[in-house]
């Protein structure tokens, strides 16, 4: 990994950069686990509403099943140099019961509305409790930018 010339960002700049990426990015890696079946990781589309990450998946998917059994999840934006990791507890909402403004924002972002599909879907909401962000080795120290649900 090339780290020459990297300037270490402060916490406020990292927080700003994380929020920009949460607004702009489309995909997030979702890591769940099940007590009997073990870990599972999958990429999903996501929407950031300013407080929580919203994703959608089939109601009978492995991700939905795992979240119902073990709500603790980890999320990762798909960049191995500009790392953003979020940790929190997930909650499932049946597609017909999610708040209208959230469902509309999701549909607007992706051009796909799960509520109009034949199958049954769930929206998964994760309010982050911890967020870590770093670019290369120089930023490993100070990588926590949210702790206990509060931005630092």
TrEMBL record:
One of its GO terms (cellular component) is cytosol. Signal peptide: none annotated. Residues 22-134 form the Pyridoxamine 5'-phosphate oxidase N-terminal domain. Keywords: Oxidoreductase. Pfam families: PNPOx_N. It comes from the Bacteria. InterPro entries: F420H2_bilvrd_red/Heme_oxyg, Pyridox_Oxase_N, Split_barrel_FMN-bd. One of its GO terms (molecular function) is oxidoreductase activity, acting on the CH-CH group of donors. The keyword Oxidoreductase applies. Coiled coil: none annotated. PANTHER family: HEME OXYGENASE HI_0854-RELATED, PYRIDOXAMINE 5'-PHOSPHATE OXIDASE-RELATED FMN-BINDING. This is Pyridoxamine 5'-phosphate oxidase.
């Amino acid at each position: 990994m090339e780290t020459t010339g990297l300037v270490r960002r402060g916490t406020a700049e990292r927080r700003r950069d994380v929020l920009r990426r949460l607004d702009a990015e489309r995909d997030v890696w979702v890591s769940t686990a099940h007590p009997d079946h073990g870990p599972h990781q999958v990429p999903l589309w996501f929407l950031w509403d300013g407080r929580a990450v919203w994703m959608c998946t089939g109601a009978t998917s492995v991700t939905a099943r795992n979240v119902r059994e073990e709500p603790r999840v980890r999320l990762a934006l798909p960049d191995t140099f500009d790392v953003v990791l979020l940790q929190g507890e997930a909650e499932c909402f049946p597609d017909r019961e999610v708040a209208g403004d959230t469902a509309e924002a999701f549909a607007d972002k992706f051009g796909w509305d799960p509520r109009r599909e034949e199958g049954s879907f769930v929206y998964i909401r994760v309010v982050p409790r911890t967020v870590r962000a770093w670019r290369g080795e120089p930023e490993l120290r100070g990588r926590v930018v949210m702790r206990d649900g509060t931005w630092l």
